[in-house]
Amino acid sequence: LERIVEFVRTGPVEEKPHLELRRLKVRAMILVMFRTGVRVSELCALRRRDFDLETGTASIYRAKGGKSRTV
């Protein structure tokens, strides 16, 4: 897992803008899963409004067991 995280942190920058955006999106997704422990389905259900950048938290709605939580 640490090798995957290290790769996405130091991976080469893409020349084409659309490929660079995709690389950054995958990087963000992997780092969020690594740091918070959210499931893939929870990550895919996140919206911009679920993130609070000031506090560094995200609200997970309808997580496992139907419960909501903050990570």
Layout of secondary structure:
Blueprint: H1 2-10, H2 17-36, H3 40-44, E1 51-52, E2 57-60, E3 69-70
Antiparallel strand pairs: 1-2, 2-3
Helix pairs in contact: 1-2
* Residue-averaged pLDDT: 88
What is the rounded distance between the termini?
20 Å
Strand order in the largest sheet: 1-2-3
Question: Which range does the strand content fall in?
Answer: 5-15%
The helix fraction, in percent, is 40-55%
**Number of contiguous helices:** 3
Indicate the overall shape.
Answer: elongated
Count of β-strands: 3
Which structural category do the helix and sheet elements fall into? mainly alpha
Polypeptide structure, described:
The chain is mostly helical. Helices cover 48% and strands 11% of the residues. The chain has 3 helices and 3 strands. The protein has a 3-stranded antiparallel sheet, with no helix packed on it. A hairpin with an 8-residue loop joins strand 2 and strand 3 (69-70).
